[in-house]
Design brief:
The structure holds two protein chains of two kinds. Chain A is an alpha/beta fold. Helix content of chain A is about 30%, strand content about 25%. Chain A contains eleven helices and eleven strands. In chain A, the strands form two sheets. A seven-stranded mixed sheet of chain A has the order 6-7-8-3-9-10-11, sandwiched between helices. A four-stranded antiparallel sheet of chain A has the order 2-1-4-5. In chain A, helix 6 packs parallel to helix 7. The longest helix of chain A is centred in the middle third of the chain and has 18 residues. Chain B is mostly helical. Chain B contains 14 helices and no strands. The longest helix of chain B is centred in the middle third of the chain and has 36 residues. The radius of gyration of chain B is 24 Å and the shape is globular. The chains are: A alpha/beta, B mainly alpha. The interface between A and B is medium-sized, with 29 and 20 residues.
Chain lengths: ~325, ~300
């Protein structure tokens, strides 16, 4: 059974031009030990989805307009703030994009780890510090004693992200949400961090939601993937299926724009045009204006995500064969 | 650290020398004659001249200044024209009262300003924020004597809980310190609010929330330490400001601080006292800032003292 199941999640924002839905009817499920990739361009709503799952969006201006977020069957959207606080960090851990700014600069690594433990576990200081040391070892940090006493600014970006990961897994959560965890890091460090996350989810059986725009990472590490465009899921599939035979033209475009070695190309294909702003989306498919395969139906009605009985779903009136 | 201190103390010497020079020149430019004031309006010109000679006021200004400086270097601040007492002694006798009032004033400023600023930041844009900011504005713009007299009326006259005037015990200190706290607390509240609002937008606050920390913990543990530096700098400034005396509050409460001494000296053109008070104020401002700078690295480990 899925640990985390998001059903028809809709998130709106109050803007100067009135309320706008930035995430519309997003559904997905995440199993224990699985890694699910959530892919899309900047502004497609993938981070907002993650923040909504954690209930970390400021409301207002944000407003969760509908849907359910089930963690082991409990709808997080119905919990009180106090109950939700016990979920955050304990049942769901979160890793952010910016390791340089995501740790508190005025506290040592050790005390921030200890806090993550003691917020949810009734352990004494001494025991918590021992656990913090063990966590650092788990995320591949050596010289633990010294590291615990250091401040974030004394660590490299890669080390800081390891500390963030240690904090996220401190209470052995059921689910870890990693929002662009490697985007801000050097390529070599990226691979290390991804290998670490991959190993941890297998060892600990955590469901891992990887939010990224890097399809390479998805191909290598994820079991399945969902592609978001302009606030909606346009395609979902097991990774192999999606990369072998994308059905949605947007997914196809994304895959085509990945540079490949050994293929002589004058110019990398790109998807023309820009993502329409929320609120400026017309009646039909939000991708229609950028799509070479658009037909009349595309501008009339939003295509549903289907077929429901298949593990490969796509929202398109004129899908690729 | 040693290099930092040496450099800052060197700067302090320069600043103090500059301040004495400016004050000295200002005194010279004032169209009033201290010798005439000492002698009295009806004294004959010869008496005035002899007083002038006695005080060295007949010498060229440059020479007067050099004499003052060389005395200063020997720790001699000169004698009061009127009371013939040593200025150093006068200042020394006023020091305890001034320091007490400074400590009490800063205590109440922080006690009022920090919680108010934190609450305003936590409820930003909502009713508590608006109420606090209006109150802070009123506090900042209220005249010192008004707040002082109001407090006196309520707590000393009507309720009779506290003494009306005087200096000595903590009960004497309470009302003048509270007056300063109410007036300055508004500044602190505004500073605390804007600094905290900025901090609450940072990524590490989001991390703290994602860890499951509650609102109070986020504000006080994660926010405050990052947002407090401007407040520390303000305390440094206040040390300087309060050290030069708070004339109105001292007058309202009969507080024997440096402010009253300065006020009387200005009325009588008692230049040595004025010079002495200015010197103390300049020193206090320099030291207050130095203190704030030295505390900063203890709060934020990224800050290093650099010479």
């Amino acid at each position: 059974m899925s640990r985390l199941s998001v059903e028809e999640l809709t998130v709106g924002f109050n803007t100067d031009h009135g309320p706008v839905d930035v995430v519309e009817g997003v559904s997905f499920a995440l199993d224990s030990g699985a890694m699910l990739g959530l892919v899309g361009e900047s502004g497609c709503g993938k981070s907002v989805t993650a923040m909504a799952v954690m209930r970390l969006l400021a409301t207002p201006p944000a407003r969760i307009a509908g849907g359910r977020v089930l963690l082991d069957g409990v709808d997080l959207l119905r919990l009180s703030e106090a109950q939700m606080r016990r979920v955050r960090g304990d049942r769901i851990g979160m890793i952010f994009q910016e390791p340089m700014t995501s740790l508190n600069p005025t506290y040592t690594v050790g005390s921030q780890l200890v806090e993550a433990i003691r917020l949810h576990r009734p352990v004494g200081r001494r025991e918590a510090w021992a656990q913090a040391g063990a966590l650092l070892e788990q995320v591949g940090i050596g010289a633990v004693r010294r590291r615990l006493g250091q401040y974030p600014h004394e660590l490299s970006g890669g080390l800081r992200q390891r500390v963030m990961i240690a904090m996220a897994i401190a209470c052995s959560p059921a689910v870890v949400i990693a929002d662009e965890p490697t985007t801000a890091l050097d390529v070599t460090i990226q691979a290390q961090i991804m290998e670490l996350l991959d190993a941890l989810r297998r060892e600990k059986g955590m469901g891992l939601l990887l939010i990224t725009h890097d399809l390479g990472l998805v191909a290598r590490y994820c079991d399945s993937v969902i592609v978001m465009y302009a606030g909606r899921i346009v395609e979902r599939a097991p990774v192999k299926t999606l990369f072998a035979a994308p059905r949605h033209p947007y997914t196809h475009g994304l895959l085509a724009s990945i540079p490949r070695l050994g293929r002589q190309q004058e110019r990398l294909p790109s998807i023309r045009g820009m993502v329409p702003s929320p609120g400026l989306r017309g009646a039909g498919c939000a991708f229609a204006d950028r799509c070479d395969r658009a037909v009349a139906a595309c501008r009339a009605e939003v295509p549903p995500l289907g077929p429901a009985d298949s593990d490969h779903g796509f929202a398109c009136w004129n899908p690729l064969p | 650290m040693a290099a930092f201190l040496a450099r800052r103390l060197g700067q302090a010497v320069l600043i103090v020398a500059g301040i004495t020079l400016i004050t000295f020149l200002l005194m010279y430019l004032i169209p009033a004659d201290p010798a005439r004031m000492i002698a009295g309006r009806n004294a004959p010109q010869s008496t005035v001249e002899s007083i002038r000679q006695q005080l060295g006021l007949d010498r060229p200004i440059v020479e007067q200044y050099l004499i003052y400086l060389s005395n200063l270097l020997q720790g001699d601040l000169g004698r009061s024209y009127m009371q013939r007492t040593e200025v150093g002694e006068l200042l020394w006798s006023r020091l305890p009262a001034t320091l007490e009032l400074m400590a009490g004033g800063i205590f109440f400023e922080l006690l009022i300003g920090i919680p108010a600023g934190l609450a305003a930041a936590a409820y930003r844009g909502r009713l508590p924020d608006r109420v606090i900011m209006v109150a802070a504005f009123v506090g900042v713009s209220a005249p010192q004597f008004l707040v002082g007299i109001l407090l006196l009326y309520v707590f000393a006259v009507e309720l009779d809980w506290l003494p009306l005037r005087g200096y000595g015990g903590l009960d004497n200190l309470l009302l003048p310190a509270l007056t300063l706290g109410i007036l300055g607390g508004g500044w602190y509240a505004r500073m605390m609010r804007s600094s905290m609002v900025d901090v609450l937008r940072r990524d590490y606050i989001r991390t703290a929330r994602a860890k499951g920390a509650g609102a109070g913990r986020i504000l006080v543990v994660h926010g405050l330490r990052n947002a407090i530096l401007p407040i520390v700098a303000m305390i440094g400034l206040d040390i300087g400001i309060f050290m030069s005396g708070v004339v109105v509050v001292e007058s309202v409460f009969g507080w024997p601080g440096i402010g009253q001494l300065a006020w009387q000296a200005i009325q009588r053109l008692d230049i040595p006292i004025i010079m002495g008070v200015t010197l103390i104020a300049a020193l206090a401002i320099v030291l207050g800032n130095l203190l704030a700078d030295m505390v900063a690295p203890l709060i934020d480990p990224r800050i290093r003292l650099r010479a």
